[in-house]
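Human: Here is a favour to ask of a fellow structure person. Comparing notes only helps if you start from a blank page. Give me a protein, with the fold worked out from its sequence. Please set it down just below, with no commentary around it:

Assistant:
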Amino acid sequence: MGECVCSAIPLKFSPSKPPAAKYHEQISCRKMRVHIGVCGIGLGHVSRTVLVARELLARGHKLSFSAYGQAVEYLIKHGFNPVVVASVGYGVGWDGGISVKQTIKENLLLPVKLALQTAAETACINDRDADFVLSDTRASTVLAAKALGRPVATILNQYNLLLKTNRYRWLAEMTQHAIQAPTLVWDMSDLIVVPDLPPPLTISEATLNIPEEQKSKTVFVGPLVERLSFSKGEVDKIRGEYDAEDRPLVLIVVSGGPFEKKVLVERFLSMADILSDGYSYVLTSANPSSSEMRKIGSLRVYDWIEDLNKLIMAADLVVGRGGLTLISKCIAYGKKMLLIPTPQHGEQLSNSRKAAKIGVARVVEQNSLDPAMFERAVKLALNDEDMDECVRVLKNVAEKCGGASTVAELVEKQAKNVSQKN
């Protein structure tokens, strides 16, 4: 794989001082009502937002939520009661990859859906008399907040969208400008919070082409993940539950939309009987509505694992898509990755390439996935000592970042600044 490159890269902040350190001050902030709008595509947005929500609750603030898609059930499962709004999303082709044609077809009524979402958000903010609004990649939440004159912070790692396609390139080129429309909305935010490592280690750099005039209100807070610490005995106990006392534990996390997940899960199920028993394979399809478990050969398949973070901590290798949340968890917990990005998913492809570039992951294509190739990639990753060093360096960098507590401090500081101006 080559020498670990990340240890030689100069960071744009001192390791002893996180990128948001200038905000780390004791802020005397009155207790607020905060409304949070969450993107419901996959579980990455909502899982990181819940961490911020818990931090705000611990500081005495009251919360309300709106969400759609997979985020709704996740919020309910974690004790929140979201208002359900109209869903938006992207189209998926027969192979589980992103389809430009299907995306356009499914979003012909996007202006109507956005209007419905914005109306619902406006009602939520008004009904709860919210003092502050927090959006995780929800344009309608930002629009509603600004219409009502409320301060708003946006958590995002996709300032601009990447449209990748091998077919219908003319269609992609025609719609490229239209799909960048959300950037005009992000510009309206009072604060932009990026849940990623600071430059030049930023995983989502390809989707963060932030204009120069917006950079003064942009803060990199590092991975928004649960901070965990386990003793060797605790890790060994977890590994024992999955028959991994004397063999590598390989965790496969299949995330994304329902059909995206279905295609990759079925690929692994078809491979299960052929996979070597030299590894303990655990697969989760990240479906919070089911608790089914089955075992096929050396592969254990779970629809839902209640405490996935503990299992990530215990794993020797994590296999997943290229979403920022899972990559961030692996970096924060010091885990190697084998990434299988969703075909033609611009964000996942670029995230995966950056993770590989800084030495913490290997990337394989879904369409070429077979048992021999998969286990060869697993073996190479597990035996890669350069990757071990890169993972260690990046874990140390992540520990210096503020995460969810910094987001809560930023929200309080922004609210205080607004109240002083009024």
Notes: The CA atoms of residues 141 and 208 lie 20 Å apart. The chain is about 40% helix and 15% strand.
